Every structure is written in structure tokens, then in C-alpha cells.
Predict the structure.
Amino acid sequence: MSGSVYKVNIPQQKTTWYLPAIFVGMGFTFKKMLKNLFDKKQMPTLNYPEEKYQYSSRFKGNHVLTVKKDGSIRCTACMLCATACPAQCISIIASEDEDHTVEKYPIAYEIDMLRCVYCGFCEEACPVDAIRMGPEWQTPGLNGENFVYDIKQLAYRENLNNGKGVISVVDEKERHQLI
Ligand code: SF4
Ligand code: SF4
């Protein structure tokens, strides 16, 4: 039995030279690299962490608990911020002062920064300027516990007036004199 033989015509591919294109690409990259090395000002990037971007003072970054003139915490533990927080990341334990003229205050105030969505509702809800959101945005940490900020971190961290805290615009005595 004689088998039929089929001939398939495979089109011959043209030889392609890639090397010239590779050299053109490398030349372009090298030109850009030299330009960036010798004219850093035109670069849109920053050499972080040596160079940091300065955000506006209105930037809603890390929280700050303000203090009274005597350095004690301004918060009256009214829970409005915790109630307004959509991420439910604020925990407060309130206590009363022995002096009946002094308002309630928090013996514990914590914000879980990993749950916070930086919406600013807590700042808006506070009636006594006790919590603000500042221009800081770096939140480094090695484990989850590092991201639960307590009163020490929120009010007295080193970069807040050398650890003395930020004084609230609402003064305790002045406020009661108005009432
Ligand atoms: S910024 Fe928003 S999510 Fe974060 S603690 Fe305040 S209210 Fe909660
Ligand atoms: S930070 Fe302001 S809103 Fe929150 S508990 Fe303190 S006083 Fe109330």
C-alpha cells in the first residue's frame, strides 16, 4: 500500500537581530541614570529615610492627645471619639478625680493604629480639643503590640514638645469660668 506524502510549506522566518535594540535600551537607561546622578533636583523621588516629605500641618497623620497647662492629660474621657470611630479602634478606661472640680480623665486611652483608617472623626467629635491628628505619618513597629498607642505615646512622645506634650487651646479653668 503506497502512502501519500504531504508536503507542508513552512514560511521561512526572517532572522531578527535583538542586540541593537538591547544596546539602544541600555543607552537610554544609562543616559537617565547619569542625568539623575548629576541633577538630583529634577528627580520626583526622595532618598527616604534621609529625606522626608513635609506634609501640610493640616495633614491627618498620627494622633496627639493634648495636655493642660499643668501637663496632665486634657481628655475628659467622655467617649465621644470612641463612639464616633468607625473602626472601633479607640479604647478608654475612665476614672474620676478626688477633686470634684476636676472632670473625669482617662486612666487608659489606647488607639490601635493598625485598625485606624485616619478618617479624623475622633478629632471632629472631641468637644475639648483633647485629640488632634498631626503631620507625622511614620508608624514603624516590629509587631502588632507596637501599633497599639497608649497615653505615653499619644501625649508624651519625644517629638511632641520634647515629651512635655502639646497644650490644648481649651484651658480647664477658663472653660469653667465661661459656664
Ligand atoms: S482617625 Fe478615624 S479610625 Fe482612626 S481613631 Fe480616629 S475616628 Fe477612629
Ligand atoms: S479625646 Fe475628646 S472625645 Fe475622646 S474621650 Fe477624650 S475628651 Fe472625649
Q: What stands out?
A: The beta strands are 63-65, 90-95, 105-112, 131-133, 148-149. Residues 84-87, 89-90, 111, 116-122 surround iron/sulfur cluster (ligand 1) (CB under 6 Å). The longest strand covers residues 105-112.
